[in-house]
Write a structure and sequence with these properties.
By secondary structure, this protein is an alpha+beta fold. Helices cover 34% and strands 25% of the residues.
């Protein structure tokens, strides 16, 4: 796909408080990965970028989707569309859902403070 997918994903994640560390791909199944962490939380979430082509793994900028490792939370990099188009609205909606779901997953995995005092 295009660089704009990565730029908009990065911006949405950073607006939601995520710090991003880019990692290399494995030349086998993923184009690259981002480690995500919020400044007040020690847990790390990894987003893998899918770019498996017929005979090789595509560079990160040409990946076609991403997925939160260990979950089914994924985001397909479809057409951008023009401002106000249904394609553009769909991308923004899917991006928002991906980022919001990521935040919910981390909040749900926090240990209950009352339980940890026992």
């Amino acid at each position: 796909m295009a660089r704009w997918h990565l730029d908009e994903l990065r911006a949405a994640l950073e607006r939601s408080g995520w710090n991003i560390v880019a990692l290399e791909g494995d030349d086998y199944r993923i184009s690259g990965a981002w480690q995500l962490r919020r400044s007040n939380d020690s847990r790390i979430v990894v987003v893998d970028f899918e770019g498996l082509d017929d005979l090789k793994v595509l560079p990160l900028e040409q990946s076609y989707a991403c997925r939160v490792r260990g979950t089914s939370n994924s985001l397909y990099f479809g057409r951008r569309g023009k401002s106000g188009s249904s394609s553009r609205g769909r991308w923004r909606s899917e991006l928002r859902l991906f980022v919001d779901t990521l935040g919910l997953r981390v909040r749900r995995s926090r240990p209950d403070r009352a339980m940890s005092r026992r």
